[in-house]
Amino acid sequence: MNVPEMINAGQLVLKRWEPEWAGEAADAVRESLPELIPFLPWAHDGYGLPDSRTFIEMSVRGWTQGTEFNYAIFTAVGELIGSIGLMTRLGPGTLEIGYWMRTPWAGHGHMTAAVSTLTRVALTLEGVERVAIRYDAANLASARVAAKAGFAEARREHRDPAAPGETDVLVTAIHQG
Questions:
Q1: What are residue 35's phi and psi, to 5 degrees?
Q2: CA separation for the pair 122, 176 (Å, rounded)
Q3: DSSP per-residue string spanning the chain
Q4: What is the mean pLDDT of the segment spanning 83-91?
Q5: What is the pLDDT of residue 29?
Q6: Which domains does the chain have, with CATH numbers?
């Protein structure tokens, strides 16, 4: 899969994660923990530089293996404001988008812009028929982003919650272009 390493998303730029951003990424996560901990199992009070380095190393491996394509989200002036990625874990023909936004930039349309742009790019990739977003039913912010980016709820399934704010309902929303 020929996934671009950098994507211009208007006022934002999505760039393949680089090891030198680990410190800023750790700062962004720590700053956003109150919003991340309820819905992201990897977010925890002690999140720090080692966690950030591990994520970026995993991202580099995933890109090389063709299983996930994670991007740092930057403003036009170079501020790191979040993360977004494409994952192949839902099987052939489908890419899943996962994302989080740094708290001070949440609620201003940045993630919707990033998701919309990454969806358009994903749907141009060979063999990709649809893009999915999966979120917990209690994660209203992720639900709003998915809806604003043109995703429609396709199914709900029961599962064991993995993070403290999750319910037992996982929602899958689909965009088919």
A1: -90, -30
A2: 10
A3: ----SEEEETTEEEEE--GGGHHHHHHHHHHHHHHHTTT-TT--TT--HHHHHHHHHHHHHHHHHTSEEEEEEEETT--EEEEEEEE-TT-TTEEEEEEEE-GGGTTSSHHHHHHHHHHHHHTTSTT--EEEEEEETT-HHHHHHHHHTT-EEEEEEE----STT--SEEEEEEE--
A4: 97
A5: 98
A6: 6-133 (3.40.630.30)
Reported as a single tens digit per residue, the pLDDT across 88-126 is: 999 999 999 999 999 999 999 999 999 999 999 999 999
Separation of CA 70 from chain center = 8
Please give the single-letter amino acid code of residue 135.
Answer: Y
Say if pTM beats, i.e. exceeds, 0.90. Answer: yes
Residue with tokens 């999505």: 14
